[in-house]
Design a protein that fits this description.
The chain has about 325 residues and is mainly α. About 70% of the residues lie in helices and about 0% in strands. Keywords: Cell membrane, Membrane, Phosphate transport, Transmembrane, Transmembrane helix, Transport.
Length: about 325
C-alpha cells in the first residue's frame, strides 16, 4: 500500500485533542458556590418582599372604605395620591439641589484639587454616607430649620413677589422653618455622598488622551472639562442622579423629624402646610393603625416599593449602558 493511500483526505477535519480542563480548586468551588447562593438569596428576599406587600395590600383595595379608619370613607387612591406627590416632590427638590453640588465637588476632587486635598475631601464625602439618618433629622429639626427661617422670610418678601415664582415662594412663610424645602435640603445632604462618589469615579475614567489632546489644542482646563470630561461622563452623571433619587425616595426618619406635613397636594415651599411622604406617613400612623388601616399603609408601601424599583432599574440600565460604551472605546 502506497503512502498516498494511507494519507488522510484533504477535506478530513484535523485530529484535535480536547484540551484538558483546568482543575478546580476547593477555594474556587467555595467562592463560586457562595456567590451563587448570595445572588439567589437576594432574589428570594426581593420576591418574598413583593409577595408580602401584594398579599397584605389586597384588603386595602377590596374592603369598603367606610370600614377603614384611615380612609374615612374616601377611596384608597385619593388617600395615596397626596402621599405619592409628597414623596416625589421632596425627592425631586433634593435631586435638583444636590446634583450641581455633587458634580462640582466631584470635578474639584478629580481635576482641580491637589492630590492630598483631594484624598481628604474624598474621605470626608464618603464619611457622610455613614451618618445615620436620625442624626440628619435631629440636625435639621433642632438647628437647620431655625437657621433658615430668616432666609425664608427674605425669599418670601423678594422672590415670592415675582408672578410665576409666587406659586412656590408666596404665601405666609412658616415661623418654625420646618417646611418641605428644609426637608429637601436635608435629603440633598444625605444623597450627596453617593452622587459625588459616582461622578468622581466616572470623571477619573475619562481617557487621558482626550484630555491631553484638548489641552494641546490650547484649551483651558475648564474648556477641557467641558469638551472632554463632561460628554464622556454624561451617562454616569445621570445614573448617579437616579441612584440618589432612589435613596431620597425611601428616606423615612429625616423627613419625619423635620417635616410636620399632612396628606395634601401643595407646591408651596415655605408655608406651614406641607405634603407628606409615604415613608414618613407610615412611620407616623403605623403605631396607631389597626385592622384594614395596617393593610392601607402596607399598600402605600407597595407603591413606594414599585416606584423605587423602577428608579433603581433605570439607574442600573444607564450604568450598564455607560460601561458598554466605555468598553467599546
Amino acid at each position: 500500500m502506497s503512502k498516498l493511500d494511507t494519507a488522510p483526505a484533504p477535506d478530513a477535519p484535523p485530529d484535535r485533542r480536547k484540551a484538558p480542563r483546568a482543575k478546580r480548586r476547593p477555594g474556587d468551588l467555595a467562592f463560586s458556590g457562595t456567590s451563587l447562593g448570595a445572588g439567589i438569596i437576594i432574589l428570594l428576599v426581593l420576591a418574598a418582599t413583593a409577595v408580602f406587600l401584594i398579599g397584605q395590600s389586597i384588603p386595602a383595595f377590596t374592603t369598603d372604605p367606610e370600614d377603614n379608619h384611615l380612609l374615612g370613607g374616601a377611596s384608597f387612591w385619593s388617600y395615596a395620591f397626596p402621599l405619592l406627590f409628597g414623596t416625589l416632590w421632596s425627592s425631586l427638590l433634593a435631586l435638583v439641589i444636590a446634583t450641581p453640588v455633587a458634580i462640582g465637588i466631584a470635578l474639584f476632587i478629580s481635576h482641580y484639587a491637589p492630590r492630598r486635598l483631594a484624598a481628604v475631601l474624598g474621605y470626608v464625602i464618603d464619611l457622610l454616607a455613614a451618618v445615620p439618618s436620625v442624626v440628619f433629622g435631629l440636625w435639621g429639626m433642632q438647628f437647620f430649620s431655625g437657621f433658615l427661617t430668616p432666609f425664608y422670610a427674605w425669599l418670601n418678601s423678594t422672590v415670592g413677589q415675582v408672578p410665576v415664582l409666587e406659586w412656590f415662594f408666596g404665601g405666609q412663610p412658616s415661623p418654625t422653618g420646618r417646611t418641605i424645602l428644609t426637608a429637601a435640603l436635608v435629603l440633598a445632604v444625605m444623597i450627596l455622598p453617593i452622587m459625588t462618589a459616582i461622578c468622581r469615579e466616572v470623571f477619573l475614567q475619562t481617557p487621558k488622551l482626550h484630555e491631553e489632546a484638548a489641552l494641546a489644542l490650547g484649551a483651558t482646563r475648564w474648556e477641557m472639562v467641558r469638551m472632554a470630561v463632561l460628554p464622556f461622563a454624561r451617562g454616569g452623571m445621570v445614573s448617579g442622579a437616579m441612584l440618589g433619587l432612589g435613596r431620597a425616595l425611601g428616606e423615612t426618619m429625616a423627613v419625619t423629624m423635620v417635616l410636620s406635613g399632612s396628606p395634601i397636594v401643595a407646591v408651596q415651599l415655605l408655608q406651614s402646610g406641607n405634603p407628606l411622604s409615604i415613608a414618613a406617613n407610615i412611620a407616623q400612623d403605623f403605631p396607631e393603625a389597626h385592622g384594614t388601616g395596617v393593610n392601607t399603609l402596607i399598600a402605600t408601601g407597595l407603591i413606594l416599593f414599585i416606584v423605587t424599583f423602577i428608579v433603581n432599574a433605570i439607574a442600573r440600565w444607564l450604568v450598564n449602558r455607560r460601561a458598554e460604551f466605555s468598553g467599546a472605546n
